[in-house]
Amino acid sequence: MSPRTACRPSRQAWRRNGRGRRCTGTSAAQGCDIAAALPLAPITDARAAAALVADLANGEVERAAVLYLDPQWRFLGRLDFAGSAAAVAPPLRAIVAEAFRLDAIALILAHGHPSGCARPSAGDIAYTRALAQVAGALDMMLVDHLIVTGREVTSLREAGLL
C-alpha cells in the first residue's frame, strides 16, 4: 500500500539500546543528518513522514523511529530503536518521556521490515493500538504508524488499523 496525500486526520481527532537514540537539533555530529535537512513546514501526510524514515528499510534487523511533532505538526525530534531480525518494540515509557521532553503533541511511529513485506503483523497492530491508547490518555495523538520496506510504505491509519 502506498501512502496517500491526505492521511492527516482532522484537528478534532486529536486533543542502540532499549531507551533509543535521540535525534534533535541540526548537528551532524549528533548523528542527526535528517534533522539538518528538515524544513519547518508541517508534516501533512504519510508520504512526507515516510521520507523522514526511509532509512529504516535498510539493515538486517527491524529498527523503529518515533517522530515528534508540535501542534502545527512540525518536526521536533526523532528517537530511534533497534530490535531483532523479526521484531522491534520500543518501550512506551521511553517514547512518552521524549514526547514530554520535547513538548510534542503528536507522534508518528515507523519501523522497517527487513523481509521486504510491508504488511502489518498482529503484533504491529497490537503495539500500535497500545501506543495510541497511552498517547491519548496523555493528551497526545499517534498520527500514524508506518511500515517501511525498500519498495513500499504501509500506513496503518490509511489501512483503517489506527
TrEMBL record:
<dbReference type="InterPro" id="IPR037518">
    <property type="entry name" value="MPN"/>
</dbReference>
<feature type="compositionally biased region" description="Basic residues">
    <location>
        <begin position="13"/>
        <end position="22"/>
    </location>
</feature>
<dbReference type="GO" id="GO:0006508">
    <property type="term" value="P:proteolysis"/>
</dbReference>
<dbReference type="GO" id="GO:0008237">
    <property type="term" value="F:metallopeptidase activity"/>
</dbReference>
<protein>
    <recommendedName>
        <fullName>MPN domain-containing protein</fullName>
    </recommendedName>
</protein>
<keyword id="KW-0378">Hydrolase</keyword>
<dbReference type="InterPro" id="IPR001405">
    <property type="entry name" value="UPF0758"/>
</dbReference>
<keyword id="KW-0862">Zinc</keyword>
<keyword id="KW-0479">Metal-binding</keyword>
<feature type="domain" description="MPN">
    <location>
        <begin position="42"/>
        <end position="162"/>
    </location>
</feature>
<dbReference type="GO" id="GO:0046872">
    <property type="term" value="F:metal ion binding"/>
</dbReference>
<dbReference type="Pfam" id="PF04002">
    <property type="entry name" value="RadC"/>
</dbReference>
<dbReference type="InterPro" id="IPR025657">
    <property type="entry name" value="RadC_JAB"/>
</dbReference>
<keyword id="KW-0645">Protease</keyword>
<keyword id="KW-0482">Metalloprotease</keyword>
<feature type="region of interest" description="Disordered">
    <location>
        <begin position="1"/>
        <end position="22"/>
    </location>
</feature>
